[in-house]
Amino acid sequence: MKIAWIGLGNMGGPMAANLVKAGHLVTGFDLSDAARGAAAAAGVSIAGSISEAVGDVDVVFSMLPAGRHVRSVMSGPEGVLAHLRPGTLVVDSSTIDIETARALHESVTAAGFRFLDAPVSGGVFGAESGTLTFMVGGADADLAEARPLIEVMAGRIFHAGSGGSGQAAKIANNMMLGINLAALCEGSVLAGRLGLDPKTFFEIASVSSGDSWALRNWYPVEGVVANAAVNRDFQGGFAVNLMRKDVGLALEAGGSTATDLPFAALVVQYLDKMVELGWGGRDSASLVKLFDGSLTAAEPS
Ligand code: NAD
Questions:
Q1: Domain 2-161 and domain 168-292 have a common topology
Q2: Ligand 1, closest atom to CA 7?
Q3: What are the extents of the domains in the chain?
Q4: How far apart are CA 227 and CA 238, in angstroms?
Q5: Phi, psi of 6, deg, nearest 5
Q6: Ligand 1 pocket at CB < 6 A
Q7: Nearest alpha-carbon partner for 55 in 81, 92, 35, 91
């Protein structure tokens, strides 16, 4: 199929690359030179503008930082919707606020196209290995049409419900991820201070009641988990800024549903501190530095 891909960053780049590997023609657009270069090297043909990328495609995917980016990419004379063939399916896999996702369902449909909110879980490794979990909101028929493409990038695909339900699932999930991450950052520091060998403690916790996905994939002590960001000085991965955004989205959703979320609120305070100290671009497991006392530099080196 002919696919347009808007947003070729840490996640979008490898996801688009997997569609190329599966034999699809993917035309991509991104504002960043580095993202465009990496995607081109993986076989994505790079367009000079959004209109050039989407003019003649069957499906458009977007993978952008936040709701405001998705709104701006979709709307306006240079935006996606102004240049699509009638009926084209638009799939947004970014993690964005539920209100924007619902508004996009309405505006994209009103403009004569179709829309799915389809955020993902599984991180950069999941994007590279084509094993992401997709949580999809929207019509059955639209998901059926997108499914063969999503399957290339996914380990699991869930139809969460009507428009916005994919984001609802993602936001509740990532709020739990943020709280789990804070717990394992504290726990790993305490275990170390109590004299436990990090590998031994990891092995115990990962088959005991302290286990979590975050623990098994992101354990923040060097040399314990092969792909964990701590082994590369917290470069790449799932940025503090993005985790702050996601747990913040949960607080917004808590506000709009009169739900008290005290632990999420506490995690946001600590993530804000990391952002203030210049660590917003590093992997979110760098949060451990607030607990182990190693955050000596105001900015990461
Ligand atoms: P990223 O910052 O690496 O990539 C986003 C890309 O969008 C960047 O390359 C940026 O240049 C591009 N962009 C921004 N505005 C644009 C515009 N107007 N037109 C074209 N391109 C534009 O972020 P990421 O890690 O790839 O995350 C993307 C989304 O996926 C976010 O919503 C994030 O919350 C979600 N997500 C990330 C992870 C992860 O582990 N990184 C996991 C699950 C979900």
A1: no
A2: 7
A3: 2-161, 168-292
A4: 12
A5: -105, 115
A6: 6-12, 29-32, 35, 63-65, 69, 72-73, 94-95, 120-121, 123-124, 238, 242
A7: 81
Structure tokens at 193: 């201070």
Find out whether 4 and 16 touch, Cβ atoms under 8 Å.
no
Along the 301 residues of the chain, how does pLDDT read in single tens digits?
A: 999 999 999 999 999 999 999 999 999 999 999 999 999 999 999 999 999 999 889 999 999 999 999 999 999 999 999 999 999 999 999 999 999 999 999 999 999 999 999 999 998 889 999 999 999 999 999 999 999 999 999 999 999 999 999 999 999 999 999 999 999 999 999 999 999 999 999 999 999 999 999 999 999 999 999 989 999 999 988 999 999 999 999 999 999 999 999 999 999 999 999 999 999 999 999 999 999 988 866 566 5
Ligand 1 atom nearest the C-alpha of 239 is 41
Q: Which fold is adopted by the domain 168-292?
A: N-(1-d-carboxylethyl)-l-norvaline Dehydrogenase; domain 2 (1.10.1040)
Q: What are phi and psi of 81, to 5 degrees?
A: -65, -25
Query: What is the 281 CA–ligand 1 centroid distance (Å)?
Result: 12
Here the tokens at position 123 are: 């991180």
Tokens for 244, please give them: 């702050």
CATH architecture for the domain at 2-161: 3-Layer(aba) Sandwich (3.40)
